[in-house]
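This section describes the prediction task in plain terms. A model, or a person checking by hand, is given the sequence of a single protein chain and must write out its three-dimensional structure as a string of tokens. No templates, partner chains or ligands are provided. The sample shown here is typical of the held-out split.
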Amino acid sequence: MHRVAPAIILSVRPHGEHGAIVRALTREDGVQPGYVRGGRSRALRPVLQPGNGIIGEWRARTVEQLAALTIEPGHSRAGLHGEPLAAAGIEWLCALTAAALPEEQPYPVLYDALDAVLTAIESAPSARGWAGALVRYELLLLGQLGFGLDLERCTVTGGTDDLGYVSPKSGAAVSVGAAFGYEARLFPLPDFLREGGVGDWPEIFAAGRITAHFLARDILVGLRHDPMPARARLFDRFKRAVA
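The expected answer:
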């Protein structure tokens, strides 16, 4: 097996005395693991940071063997790891993607979306400029893995107007009229989660409660290493920043 591709580093795990096992997301071949010789060296540590873009070259004698991975630095986001909000956002995005996606399965839409959210974290003047995009990435990931939410029409009436809630059971939208008397059992549905754009902080937190519920229930259940604490740290930092 021989593969050369641009990739986004998702996770880095020490292996042996000097090496590291790296999992990276490629556009055409999905998540690819590889062993990086000298991955814990002073020269490679800044390169092997989650969120960094690289050119990876994977080589293995058989498809069952863990490939040897050599790294060419690409787009570095290492400097963002010194900024608490940006670092927490990158940590969660990469941990979620690494935990949720199976290896060797292409998800080009998720690759492009992840790269776009990471770019937004770099360029937005404040966290509010990218926090909504992060939640929409969570929504997209749910959809790409077969657990998409139906936010286009009311699950009770079939109508498309006045959608104000989401059912925590079905993941479908509910209109304001159909939800009357049951509001406390439903998630409020922020407009930006369906329509895009930048939400305000109350809308972002409301949207985050929806995606967190379905990620924990449908995608991240039963994992050996639960990435949800990284998400909790991120949203705690959001709340402190707003306060």
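For orientation: The first helix runs from residue 84 to 100.
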